[in-house]
C-alpha cells in the first residue's frame, strides 16, 4: 500500500504551507513519510480522520492477524457516532 496526500500544515502570515504526506507499508510496519520535518501540524477536524484512516489500513495490511479485531473496533467507533 502506498497512499499520498497533502495536508495544509501550518497557517502563518504567509498563508498555508502545505505538506506532502505518504503512508506506506514496509514488512510489518506502517510508515508515515513527510516531505520535510515539522515540529507540529495544524489540521482541521477532517484531516486527522483522513490520516488515521490511511494509517488504519496500513496497520491492518502490515499485520493481517490484527485485521478482524481492528475492523470490529472501527465498526464500534462508527456505531458510537
What does this structure look like?
- The chain has 81 residues and is α+β, with helices and mostly antiparallel strands.
- Helices cover 38% and strands 36% of the residues.
- It is built from two helices and three strands; from the N terminus they run E-E-E-H-H.
- The chain has helices at 46-62, 67-80; strands at 2-12, 15-26, 29-34.
- Strands 1-2-3 form a three-stranded antiparallel beta sheet.
- The longest helix is centred in the middle third of the chain and has 17 residues, at 46-62.
- The radius of gyration is 15 Å and the shape is flat.
- The chain starts with a strand and ends with a helix.
- The mean pLDDT is 77.
Which strands sit side by side, in order, in the main sheet?
1-2-3
Q: Total strand count, please?
A: 3
Distance between termini? 28 Å
Low-confidence stretches: none
What's the helix-strand series?
EEEHH
The tally of helices reads 2
Helix content: 25-40%
Would you tell me the overall average pLDDT? 77
Largest sheet descriptor: 3 strands, antiparallel
Tell me, briefly, the overall form. flat
Percent strand equals: 35-45%
Query: What integer value in Å does the Rg equal?
Result: 15 Å
Secondary structure category: alpha+beta
